[in-house]
Specification:
Layout (H helix, E strand, L loop, with lengths): L6 H16 L5 E4 L4 H6 L3 E4 L5 H12 L5 H8 L3 H14 L5 E4 L3 H11 L3 E4 L17 H4 L5 H17 L4
Parallel strand pairs: 1-2, 3-4
Helix pairs in contact: 5-6
Length: about 170
């Protein structure tokens, strides 16, 4: 399991991990050291970040909490951390090659690279307990904090318009 060390991300993964263990599978987490105690208390392995800087993760998340999102910071968090994720995951792979990887939808290293380089199934688990498809009444999840001054209904129309335009151009 590759997952960011945030409670809202970890707990859905722990639930799935417990179900897999009950079915006889061995489970190990790749996440931040701050989650290690919780994971090991549940009787599962934890391989914490080494090349990846957990404090940068915390900094990006604090920006969201404070509603002070810097697009460059998010780019560094989501895409800029991919090389460090892969450095860590390749080291883990050398000792413990998994049969499959269940990945946090916001951790892009495994999603973008592992399936192609390791020829292993990579499944994505969403930690979001809501429909991710926008509609006329509801915007893309998270868009509200990006556009503080727009009402959700307007954002829903904008996001639905984007999808309709993409559909007309056969772009997905």
């Amino acid at each position: 399991f590759s997952v960011w060390p945030l409670q809202t991300h970890l707990h859905p993964f722990l639930a799935v991990a417990q179900a897999l263990r009950r079915r006889g599978h061995e489970v190990c987490f790749y996440t931040g050291a701050s989650a290690r105690e919780l994971i090991e208390r549940e009787g599962m392995g934890c391989r914490p970040f080494h090349a990846l800087d957990e404090s940068a993760v915390n900094e990006a998340v604090q920006g969201v909490i404070r509603r002070n999102v810097n697009p460059r910071q998010w780019q560094r968090f989501l895409l800029g951390s991919v090389p460090q994720q892969l450095t860590d995951l390749n080291a883990i792979w050398a000792e413990w090659p998994p049969d499959a990887v269940l990945c946090d939808m916001a951790m892009w290293g495994p999603i973008l690279v592992l399936h192609e380089t390791k020829r292993v199934p990579v499944a994505i688990l969403s930690h979001v307990a809501a429909c991710l498809l926008p509609g006329p009444e509801y915007p893309f999840p998270g868009m509200g904090w990006l556009f503080k001054n727009l009402r959700p209904r307007i954002l829903g129309r904008v996001s639905a318009g984007i999808l309709q335009a993409a559909d007309r151009k056969s772009v997905v």
